[in-house]
């Protein structure tokens, strides 16, 4: 979660130097290359073919459509606000597990989801607009959509974990993401020069997040209930707020703190906190 919290700051810094789709393609390509030495340890082909629809749904949910929403969101809103929105994920996982996996979801779970949505709305409504966050309302809505994709991803990883290693699931999503974002090479504007800041941020996103953070999360999902693993996401807002303040000079103002309190109260109400 510490590595993931830094991803919002790194992505926000990177989009000042590179097109967001080139950044996502670069991080996916780096992650795929990092897993290349493990290619000979692929699971048996019949097993992969049998679970291919689930694997593709997992990878399309995240990283593919997840980064479509999040990359655009971070061009419109602050990294710290996007990080706070991630606190919605544990509650969304609990409610989705009740709807699609038959797990019991209590009234407290749905109330927690309602509080979180209200908090996200308040966070967005009082968000200041500036050159680095020109449309925080739309940006935060897109980050909410990304959390919907992350919910699907979490449930699919939990379903696939008994059949595949965390390393294979992480490598599969990286390779699928590389293919998905490959058209960015032709349709995205290239910078006049590549700055070290943009390349360093891309390197962090590719190796420390797409490989290390996702690998740790997938390992946790193979050992813990989905709701408990997702609960650790509640640590991301704290990490992102601190790093956004230290590295980007971002601030949270006035009534936005009330919105953050509502989001965290919603996660607490469901009982899913790390």
Automatic annotation (TrEMBL):
Gene3D superfamilies: 1.10.3730.20. Keywords: Membrane, Transmembrane, Transmembrane helix. It comes from the Bacteria. One of its GO terms (cellular component) is membrane. It holds the Pfam family EamA. The chain crosses the membrane at residues 20-38, 50-69, 81-102, 109-126, 138-156, 168-188, 194-217, 229-248. Residues 1-124, 138-269 form the EamA domain. It is a multi-pass membrane protein. SUPFAM superfamilies: Multidrug resistance efflux transporter EmrE. It is found in: Membrane. Its main location: membrane. InterPro entries: AA-Vitamin_Transporters (IPR050638), EamA_dom (IPR000620), EmrE-like (IPR037185). Belongs to the EamA transporter family. This is EamA domain-containing protein. It comes from Fundidesulfovibrio magnetotacticus. The lineage of its organism: Bacteria, Pseudomonadati, Thermodesulfobacteriota, Desulfovibrionia, Desulfovibrionales.
């Amino acid at each position: 979660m510490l590595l993931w919290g830094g991803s919002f700051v790194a992505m926000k810094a990177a989009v000042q130097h590179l097109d967001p789709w080139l950044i996502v393609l670069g991080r996916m390509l780096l992650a795929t290359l990092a897993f290349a030495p493990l290619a000979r340890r692929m699971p048996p082909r019949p097993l992969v073919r049998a679970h291919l629809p689930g694997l593709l749904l997992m990878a399309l949910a995240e990283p593919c459509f997840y980064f479509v929403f999040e990359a655009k969101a971070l061009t419109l809103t602050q990294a710290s606000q996007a990080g706070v929105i991630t606190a919605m994920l544990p509650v969304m996982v609990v409610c989705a597990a009740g709807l699609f996996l038959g797990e019991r979801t209590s009234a407290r779970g749905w109330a927690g989801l309602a509080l979180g949505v209200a908090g996200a709305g308040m966070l967005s409504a009082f968000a200041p607009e500036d050159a680095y966050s020109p449309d925080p309302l739309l940006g935060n809505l897109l980050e909410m959509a990304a959390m919907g994709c992350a919910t699907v991803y979490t449930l699919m990883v939990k379903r696939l974990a008994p059949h595949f290693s965390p390393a294979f699931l992480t490598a599969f999503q990286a390779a699928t993401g590389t293919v998905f974002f490959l058209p960015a090479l032709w349709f995205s504007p290239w910078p006049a020069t590549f700055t070290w800041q943009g390349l360093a941020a891309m390197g962090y996103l590719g190796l420390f997040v797409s490989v290390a953070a996702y690998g740790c999360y997938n390992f946790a999902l193979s050992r813990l209930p989905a709701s408990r693993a997702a609960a650790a996401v509640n640590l991301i807002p704290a990490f992102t707020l601190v790093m956004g303040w230290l590295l980007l000079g971002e601030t949270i103002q006035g009534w936005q703190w009330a919105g953050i309190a509502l989001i965290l109260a919603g996660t607490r109400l469901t009982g899913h906190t790390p």
